[in-house]
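Human: Cast an eye over this sequence-structure pair and say how the chain folds.
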Amino acid sequence: MHSSISRRLENRLKLTGNHSGKILPKKSRTTIQSGFASPEIF
């Protein structure tokens, strides 16, 4: 479960780049660890 989220995050990071973290999915709580905008939707 956690690994799938991390994998999706890695793919998103490669696609969006580190500058646009707002496009990340709602299920990604690991965005906080990555240093993106805090996903309060989780």
